[in-house]
Amino acid sequence: MAGNNPNIFNINDNEFNIIQKGLDPEQVKSFVGKLIEENGSLTAELNKLKEQTEHLESLKRLADTTIIEADKLAATLKEEAITKAKEESDSLLAKAEEKAKKVYEQIYRQLNTLKQQVNSLDKDFDFNTEGEKPAIEPVIPAAVKETPVRAKDDFMAKAVANSDIMESTTQELVIRDKEIELEILPPVDAVKITKIMDQLENASEVEVVELIPRPNHPVIIVYENKPNSLLDVLKKLSMVGKVNEIPASPNGSGIVRRKYEISLVASVVK
Q1: Coil, strand or helix: which one is 266?
Q2: Which of 82, 251, 262, 267 keeps 20 to 30 A from 147, CA to CA?
Q3: Within 13 A of 72's CA, how many CA atoms are on the CB side?
Q4: How far apart are CA 229 and CA 247, in angstroms?
Q5: Distance of CA 109 to the CA centre of its chain
Q6: How far apart are CA 153 and CA 208, in angstroms?
Q7: Residue 181 backbone phi and psi in degrees, to 5
Q8: From CA 202, how far away is CA 208, in angstroms rounded?
């Protein structure tokens, strides 16, 4: 056996013949052992590096796949966003057109009502002027009262509670400091007027009382909840261009209100 043969040298189950004048067997064995140990260490490190390389390649493939999927998802989301924005835009436009249609219908009905009232007054005037004039009995002027335009909001009750109405039996004028007339200067745009009324209704400082349709100068009457706040509110409205305060004067019903002239913003040409 090699273990009992003095002419055989064994290193890690490897047999080497011993010859005369050879190297020291123990030194050779130690050196070869170190080489084997280093070789095993390098082999283990090489295997570890191979595993890391394979892991990095796997991560790279995953990253490439993720980027592709992300691009596809981004394209899909973009298309969905464009579609949704178009649908919302069409819906808003339809609502604005519907509201404008209602405003036009309201203006048309009120104009017909005014026309009928004028015709009725003309007939009464013609009837009273025929023949002899009847004797006129003296009439004691009564205090002027006006029915609120919208009973549900009870703006007149609020005005009385805040001492907003001052009546004069001599001049027969009703002065309303908190009710303000907003006269819309031409060119008139029903859609823009509708947006202005919506924005005024959303403002806490004021309340919309009514819209008085006129062919060239529609009037919006508002009630000021907070004193001297209307001007600041008007300057913030998107559809309002210029605002000018004009001297107050009594209207045909003997009511005196503060007045503002407002011009609409010019339409943007695309």
Answers
A1: coil
A2: 262
A3: 6
A4: 18
A5: 33
A6: 10
A7: -95, 130
A8: 10
Cα–Cα distance between 160 and 221 in angstroms, integer? 17
Q: Can you give the pTM of this predicted structure? A: 0.37
Amino acid letter for position 35 = L
The Cα–Cα gap between 213 and 113 comes to: 12
Q: pLDDT of 116-167, one tens digit each?
A: 777 777 666 655 555 545 444 444 444 444 444 444 345 444 444 443 444 4
Query: How many alpha carbons fall within 13 Å on the CB side of residue 230?
Result: 25
* Pair 150, 230: CB distance under 8 Å: no
**Contact between residue 107 and residue 213 where contact means Cβ atoms under 8 Å apart:** yes
Q: What are phi and psi of 263, to 5 degrees?
A: -110, 145
Cα distance between residue 54 and residue 48, in whole Å: 10
Whole-angstrom distance, CA of residue 115 vs CA of residue 121: 10
The 10 Å Cβ neighbour count of residue 206 is: 21
Residues 6+ apart with CB under 8 A from 185: 217, 261, 262, 263, 264
Q: How far is CA 228 from the centre of its chain?
A: 27
